[in-house]
Amino acid sequence: MSSTAPRTTGQDRLWSVDEHLEDILATVRPLEPIELQLLDAQGCVLVEDVTVPVSLPPFDNSSMDGYAVRVADVAGACEEFPAVLEVVGDVAAGQADPLTVGPGQAARIMTGAPLPPGAETVVPVEWTDGGLGEGPVTGMRARALAPEGAAGQVRVYRPAEARAHVRDKGSDVKAGDRALEAGTVLGPPQIALLAAIGRGTVRVRPRPRVVVLSTGSELVPPGEELRAGQIHDSNSFALTAAARDAGAIAYRVGAVADDAETLRATIEDQLVRADLMVTTGGVSVGAYDVVKEALSHTGDEDEPGSGVEFRKLAMQPGKPQGFGSIGPDHTPLLALPGNPVSSYVSFELFVRPAIRTLMGLEDVHRPRARAKLTARPGAHLTQGPPPVPARRVLRRHDLPGRRQRIAPGGRAGPGERADRRPRGRGDRRTGHRGRGRPARLSHGTARPLPGHDDTGPAVRGPRTGRTPTAPPYRRHASTRTTTRAWRRARTPPSTGTRHNDHARAWRRATPRPAPAHTVPPGPRRSRARAGR
């Protein structure tokens, strides 16, 4: 593999993501193709088209277990008048010398067996008596248990069309067709097709070998006890899994301590099995960033200007990055930040396209979509708490088309008003004379008026709650009448001396829909207060 030196510039330059990725893809070259066995080629990319040498299937064969017959012999067959045919033998899959079926004859045939000469269609065994003479059967008996099934007579109870239950020669692929094209990633279906057409080996680009190495004296493998100042190593596991998911053969190396000489020795030992090196951590501006210290002055021996260059990218997370080639084979090396989020984001942006390029794929990028940010970032953190649901107090004014009263402390909605006044005072704006209280029940649970549905939670209102403002077209009076009507309405009308009083209460409490051209009436007043 050859590599070209990345563009050099001042240390303080801020590189864009596209510039950095362009340098990486310009340096990385696809691996040389090799010939591999089918199972070894799983996950690899084809480098040439594959054509079909023979048709598939190579002969007409049965798709059902049954009897190979002529169409004319079973025409008009039914359960009352079945077609009786002579069985001339069995035709099994792989049989070299098939039988010949003549007029009035049938051959017992198995799934995948070639259609014998003279036969035009296949009748499923479920349409026959199986040669037992006892009506339709559900299957054939094993040959070892009932060898007489290959002879005798069979009754067919249903007709069959020509070529029914027959797979024609070349119905899957024909000789000369292109089975797979170059650039196809070989998975289980592709390997099955290659085996079906007789290919034992295939020419592919091998899966790249990626070595993942994390740095940091504080890193401890998972499963070991942590000491003061230590954390578990997660980056190497995440990046190794991501590399395998991208199609590579990934090797994970244990965490390397913050020592430049140890890091250089570890990298040199791993180059023998690496098509791509990935390190994480030690690329920033700290005093213990050993990756930057160990690789800043390391270059290829026979290629001037090569080596590893460390840059600052216009991205966050993942601003510090490193890239170059190292070793006698000019193995590409990508140095990623140590922050877990930064390392994974950097892998998706830079390492994954490099792996896909080594595999020889044309589309190396994740799908992208452009979006527009319409909300200010962090706006949800500065907004106040959600509004507290208002407690509803049942009044006679809670009728369709009227305003609702909510308890003090709640948040008013459209058509609602939340205020309070001292108990016992009048209201000049509404004409209220005072001493009114919200209608409530002794046990503290309000109920809807008869004939109405209360859509919200109903609880007892505060004793200091203010009478709601009436609609602008009419002032309202005291709610004492409402309370009396409500208490009377709790008991259904009954016979007796108070029957008229109950009926009158029900009429007061039960709303009557107003005509569309009239204004809904306001609160009714009692006769006693109306005469004042």
Q: Span from first to last CA?
A: 107 Å
Count of helical regions:
11
> Quick one: how many beta strands?
23
Low-confidence stretches: 1-10, 392-399, 402-407, 416-424, 434-449, 451-479, 528-532
Largest sheet: 7 strands, mixed
- Which word captures the global form? flat
What is the spatial order of strands in the main beta sheet? Answer: 1-19-20-21-18-14-17
Helical percentage: 10-25%
Mean model confidence by pLDDT: 78
Strand content: 15-25%
Structural class: alpha/beta
Rg result? 44 Å
Architecture blueprint of SSEs:
Elements: E1 14-15, H1 17-27, E2 34-37, E3 45-46, E4 50-51, E5 61-62, E6 66-69, H2 71-74, E7 83-91, E8 105-109, E9 121-124, E10 153-156, E11 166-167, E12 178-180, H3 188-196, E13 201-205, E14 209-215, E15 219-220, E16 231-232, H4 235-246, E17 249-256, H5 260-270, E18 276-280, H6 290-295, E19 308-313, E20 320-326, E21 331-336, H7 340-359, H8 379-382, E22 404-405, E23 416-417, H9 480-489, H10 499-509, H11 527-530
Parallel strand pairs: 1-19, 7-8, 14-17, 14-18, 15-16, 18-21, 22-23
Antiparallel strand pairs: 2-13, 3-13, 4-12, 5-11, 6-8, 6-9, 7-10, 19-20, 20-21
Helix pairs in contact: 1-7, 4-7, 9-10
Short description:
The protein is an alpha/beta fold and 532 residues long.
